[in-house]
Amino acid sequence: MGKTIFIAVVSVILMALPASVALAQGDIQIVSQSIESEFRDNIKAGISLKSGAEITEVEFFYRVAGQVATSRNVADFEPGTTVEAAFSINQTEIYFPPGTELEYWWKATDANGNSVKSDKQTYLYFDERYEFNILSNERVSLYWYSGSDKFGQALFDQANKGLDQLETNVNIVVEQPIKIFIYGNHNDLLNAIAVGAQEWTGGQAFAEFGVVVMGVSPGSLDWGLKATTHELTHLVIHQATDNPYGDLPRWLDEGLAVYNENPDRLDSQFRSSFKEAVSADRLMTLQTLSSSFPADPDAANLAYGESGAIVKFVIDTYGPEAMHTLLDIFSEGALYDKALQQALGVTMRELDNQWRESLGVPPLSAPEPAAGGETPAADSAQAEPAATSALVVASPAPPEKSSKNKPAGNLPCLAGALPLLFLTGLVWFKRPKSA
Ligand SMILES: [Zn+2]
Questions:
Q1: Tens digit of each residue's pLDDT (9 = 90 or more) over 169-192
Q2: CB burial of residue 121 (10 Å; 0-12, 13-18, 19+)
Q3: What gap in Å lies between CA 144 and CA 131, rounded to an integer?
Q4: Any idea which architecture 133-430 has in CATH?
Q5: Of 70, 207, 219, 320, which has the highest C-beta tally within 10 A?
Q6: Tens digit of pLDDT for each residue in 102-138?
């Protein structure tokens, strides 16, 4: 008896579906729809329509779930009373990371001016070339295909630890669940991120998509744990501070990522050069660290280490709530000095001197010389969107002035790339300087 009722209900739903999809406004009927993709190549959507009058226009709309910008596109089709329309999102021009969730819908119009709009649907764009294992909870999902269960579990646990630390130390919680894709080696990674990515890329955080893509071989788990935490931190911080006017000073952005790799102690990768700079009084100023980091590998390493140390100083001295407030103020587009004064009660220079004092380094003697050469003034650097920084220029990020079709720039990370550089000896520092 129960079974019969169940079957009856199912058949009613199945019969009801085409009718609900057809939404007979005017005379146009939606007969069927399809969507499929080939990762990093295309996403193809199609629709069959019938109408009493000639269908003259078919449009395909899509947006990345959670984003406001919608892409409106004219579909290809032969006008008629029965049409097969199609639209393809060319993934060699517009890159979406694996795990991107698209919302899409169609609109068709006939010669009488009747139109029909399909229901909004969701499509999960995935990299089908690999059989990913998945570990997942309400905050984060980790996908991997190379390496043991233990390998995946270690990365998943570390990701959760990183999120816990951000909650405790920065007072920030994940708003949208995050997906982390672990590719099994560097080559697979390069074949999964945008075509033309820098050889040195070790991983990327796509804040707008809620996705982190990493290349971690089972033999480099230790590096993978740190690098994944680093990129994950960028993503969570960027989601929390997203604003159209400005961006975080680089020392804060990178510093939080470095700090979160290990909140107790600066990672060994940065420790010795940082200690050397402290004892030789060769620390870069906060103002210098507010814009693009140096291209020279040693100087870049120091810049990352210093940034991690400053962030630790701010959190240890002012507390998680103050750090949270600082990020909040930046997310409203405040200037650097103003944000620091509001959140911590000090200017950038005063903070710099407090920090130097804590390290036993003499205070800055005089105001910094006017901007020139490689040290742009904080304000002028801040006026530009993040995507114009050297790191992004060196990357395959889409143009920062994104059209409806092109989501905003992603966030490649030099720190994640360093171990690869040192292993492969790639001359990444020869890349063109920031414009
Ligand atoms: Zn970074």
A1: 999 999 889 999 999 999 999 999
A2: middle
A3: 8
A4: 3-Layer(aba) Sandwich (3.40)
A5: 207
A6: 999 999 999 999 999 999 999 999 999 999 999 999 9
